[in-house]
Each structure stands twice: as structure tokens, then as C-alpha cells.
Amino acid sequence: MAQSKSAAYDYLLKLLLIGDNDLLHRFSDDSFTPPFITTIGIDFKVRTIDVDGKRIKLQIWDTAGQERFRTITTAYYRGAMGIAFVYDITNERSFNGILNTFKIFTSLNETLYIFVITKEQGQKLADEFGIKFFETSVKENINVEEAFFTLVRFD
User: How does it sit in the membrane (predicted)?
Assistant: First the structure.
């Protein structure tokens, strides 16, 4: 974690979201507006949270998961302190893109805290990678806060 020289926060964390950008909007703006426009390139939000008595400023970068944007988005992987792979359980293509992106991301970053979000195949993939798993619902606002707070705590 980068320590802040400013009184506004104690730490600054760069986090990445790869996949469904509705999670970013639910966490940062507490909003859900289906269907949302697909991210083209990069979307960026900031939210400051309190965790274990510390103010943590989160820079959350939502990168486009599509292959055609990969050359744009891989530049943003460097310096990230955590990543959430997000996919839609009703869209197999969104799940299949995770493995390739995971390999690219881990080749660029040595020490990370990573977790995958959503159900059975996600649990299996998370077990295979040895990472955390969360099932969330952006629409119903279930486990969104918990997923981000766990990522920040490095639990």
C-alpha cells in the first residue's frame, strides 16, 4: 500500500476490475442501470473507505475485457495492488476470458491479492488459482461492499 502524505487518506490503492463494469458503478456510485454501455478502453472511479481505523483511497480502474482493447488495457495492469475478475454467469464468453487475462496480469505483477466473483465455475477457478471467491449481485447490491473490503484488507 502506498502511504499518503495528505491528511485526506492514510493509504492509496490502485485496484483493477476486469469484466462486467456494473460492479464498479454499484460500489462507487451505489447505482445500477441495466443495461450499461460496455467499457471501451478504461473507466476510472475513486472512493475513499474506512478499513480497520485507516482511511483508504481506492483508485478503481475498470478495464475492457474484450480482446480488441487488450493492447490499451495491459498498460494499466502495472502498479495495481489488487484485481477483481468479474463475469456474468449468464455469459460464458465473459467467463472464458478470465483465464487468459489472469495469465497476462500475473506475468506483469509479482505480488498481488486476487479474487474471482460469481458461482460454481468461478468457485472451481478460484480454487484452481488459490484465490478468494465472492458471489455478488450488482442488481440486488449483495456482497459488493464485502468483496471490495476483503480485497483492501488482503484477507
Answer: Lipid-anchor
